[in-house]
Amino acid sequence: MTLVERVPKLLFTRRASDKSKKILSRAIKQMLKSYQAVCKTITFDNGGEFVGHQSIARKLGCNIYVAKPYHSWERGLNENTNGLLRRFFPKGMEIGKLPKNQIDDAVFRINARPRKMFNYWSLLEFLVGKRVSHMLVI
User: What superkingdom does the record give (predicted)?
Assistant: First the structure.
């Protein structure tokens, strides 16, 4: 499961044992618990696994939006970021069977990418105000 913070484009991932609404709801709540104060909205796709989104909204105190069926552009940032993740793990590869550290490494590399919106600094560099990419092994 992937979530992307809209402004800094920070990618969060969490492995879920299955796509049931109970499991995904619990995983989302755990993933965003630390960010509850700044989490304002979440946009889900129209899958049945997100039917129980009301409990997430109550727990996190945020607004939930659901994209219309076949309107992937309503979740464009997440779809684009999933594409970046697919550069590491091509379609057909069972991501759920990969070691957690391999997934975490890919997420780190995506989050450490220089971004045009940060004048080609990475999010980390932008947040600390120092150019550090020459120190990162990517």
Answer: Bacteria
Burial (0-12, 13-18, 19+ Cβ within 10 Å), 106 = buried
Dihedral sign (CA 118, 9, 111, 70): negative
Length of the chain: 138
pLDDT for res 134: 56
110 burial class (0-12, 13-18, 19+ CB within 10 angstroms)?
buried
pTM exceeds 0.85: no
Phi, psi angle pair for 42, to nearest 5° = -135, 135
Tell the residue number behind the tokens 């304002």, with chain if given. Answer: 40
**43-59 mean pLDDT:** 86
Yes or no: say if 21 and 51 are a contact pair by the CB < 8 Å rule: yes
The helix/strand/coil state of 56 is helix
- pLDDT digits 0-9 by tens, 62-104: 999 999 988 989 999 999 999 999 999 998 888 888 899 999 9
In terms of Cα–Cα distance, which of 21, 78, 31 is closest to 55? Answer: 21
